[in-house]
Design brief:
alpha+beta; 14 strands; 34% helix; 11 helices; 5-stranded antiparallel sheet; 289 residues
Length: 289
């Protein structure tokens, strides 16, 4: 029989997860988990641990340019935070692509990450932003890069007693910005064929001094593509840089064939999405001081 608990503290949640006699699942927003519970053969946990009642699990806090987003913060709240939209527009864009308006009232970054889908929209943008997770567990709290959490489709590096408590987004340097784009077969509410998150920092002359390029839905996990970032660093956004970025993105892809796209198609689209996201990120960064 499926058991349910809604702990009021981090410590209670950790004890519940550690003491579960079988499979325990964390309920953050529930937009993935509840669907899986109703789908035969998808997931059969013995315990649901609802973390939404724990203080500070929901909400966005900013201090000295650093943002802390509680793991149970709904996408709708993220989209309405003007300070976050100004600092990290790509992260907000990605979070707001998770489902419909109704889904946005429940869906969370933590759930999107820990569901461990290769096509998760928020993950490439968070990685591009150098976001980190605060992970709570029996040994206390630790901070980990977002890219270290997902290890494969449906799999994470979290221990059985661990869950994500919050996300940290670092302070923005001057003249820096990010962007996230995805390609889907329909106009909205579909799973990404390819996603691309790009974050850049420019010098006063418009030359890129730092970059992160991340692709989604083209490998078992989101890909942080160092060669694609290297194609941008030290250059203004010119055709040569864009061509090098395109080729680096394509080389990194390890996609599969499925009903939304062939391997060849995904690889081509990955280059296109990387170029477009980089162009938007450059334009945004150039307007900042």
């Amino acid at each position: 029989m499926l058991a349910y608990t809604a702990p009021m503290t981090v410590e209670e949640a950790v004890r519940a997860l550690a003491g579960a006699s079988g499979v325990a699942k964390v309920l953050s927003g529930g937009t993935d988990l509840l669907v899986q519970l109703r789908s035969a053969g998808r997931v059969k946990p013995d315990l649901i641990v609802d973390i939404k009642k724990i203080p500070d699990m929901s909400g966005i806090r900013e201090r000295d340019g650093v943002f802390v987003i509680g793991a149970a913060t709904p996408g709708a709240v993220i989209g309405e935070c003007e300070a976050l939209r100004q600092a990290w527009p790509g992260v907000v864009e990605a979070a707001n692509l998770i489902g419909s308006t109704q889904i946005q009232g429940r869906a969370t970054l933590a759930g999107n990450l820990c569901n461990a889908s290769p096509a998760a929209d928020s993950v490439p943008a968070l990685i591009a932003a150098r976001a980190t997770c605060v992970v709570a567990g029996a040994n206390g709290r630790r901070e980990a890069p977002v890219e270290s959490i997902v290890t494969g489709p449906g799999r994470t590096s979290l221990g059985r007693d661990e869950f994500i408590f919050a996300f940290h987004l670092p302070k923005r340097p001057p003249r820096s910005a990010d962007a996230y784009l995805r390609f889907i077969p329909r106009t909205e509410m579909d799973i990404a064929v390819v996603g691309a998150g790009v974050s850049v920092t420019l010098d006063p002359g418009g030359v890129c001094t730092d970059a992160r390029v991340v692709l989604g839905a083209v490998a078992p996990t989101a890909l942080l593509v160092a060669d694609a970032a290297a194609a941008l660093i030290g250059r203004a956004l010119d055709p040569t840089a864009l061509d090098a970025l395109d080729q680096a993105a394509r080389r990194a892809c390890k996609p599969i064939d499925d009903k939304r796209g062939t391997i060849e198609y995904r690889i081509k689209v990955a280059g296109v999405m990387a170029r477009r996201a980089a162009t938007i990120a450059y334009e945004r960064a150039g307007k900042r001081r």
